[in-house]
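Predict fold of CxC6 like cysteine cluster associated with KDZ domain-containing protein; 364 aa.
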Amino acid sequence: MSGAEAAGDQIQADAGNLAPLPANLPDSLPQLEAPPVGSPRGYIRMAVMDGKGIKHRKYALDQCEAPLYNYKNGRFCETHLQLAGTCGIIPCGLPVQHPGALTCSTQSHIDWHKQYENRFGRLSFPGVQRVIRQQQEVGEGSIQTPQGPSLRVQLQALGNTPGGDVLHTVKAKSIYCLQTVQWACGVPIRWGKCYRSESTPQVLRFLNNTWADHPNSRPSFLAYDNACNLLRHIVTQDASDIWLATTKFIVDAWHYIGHQATNILCRTRCNPAPADGSQPDLVLTEEDDNGQVHQTRAFNTETAEQLNSWLNGFESQLRQMSDVNYDFFIHVLMLIYAETMEKRIQLKEMELTEEFWDRVNGLT
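Predicted 3D structure, encoded as tokens:
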């Protein structure tokens, strides 16, 4: 039984648990439907988007996205420098016990900060390995053995607030992730930063900014690991959003296998390779050297993951940079990667020729 058939069986078995499709969801995009037999197919474009957890430090509270004033050991942006003289526990507001201290003279605040420093202040890579090894050794005697590394750090409660939920400014925070979008051939289009989370509103804002000046160049398909929730968000917020008329959102092939089969929106609208012939631009029928006919994906939906893998080699340097150096370095990396992809395309003789564009523009 194929994966598609198994998913279909599970959908039928759990029909009572299916989330309904959002209202006003378009049935299809006319520009992606197969043309009449004998008519030219034209061309389509696919973009691939993903977030990568390469970060730089920022102001200690999520509400502010401003860069640090001092990247050596600072915690505040220039606007909030005056808070250095205030207790780092929110919302205490009392002055620090002495210049250079991070908390006031309240003993519970001092104790909480001391424990925080013991847990995080000198957290080294060997220390993390040691903690993970100890946790795995303890887990071996339990019924459910951890399947991978973990690091669970618990802080003491502060009053009625659990230790992990205490708001504080005792340490600078970091942006959430680097967001990238590129063509399916691998050439980057744009990059940006998510400061608090890779939420659907932030991702949609990133897409809107990317194609703000080039609305007619929006991709025909957009592959994204959370495309089904992004599509649901767009339809729910604005049923007339231009994205619903120009682009079909699909989940990339690697993440699609992990999405719930009962997610009817994902299975019916975001399938990267439907086998029912509904998306001929996503699935090609080819004949191999042995004469056997089989179906294959028309696009590589994992180019973003391949870019992320390449960026891993620069992660340690980027984490220590200021926001300005980070932005400049990322932009240079994208230019280098684009040149690398273009050379690879040329070596494979897969670049789009002038004859191709003449046909597109109706000149031939």
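Residues 46 and 221 are 5 Å apart (CA to CA).
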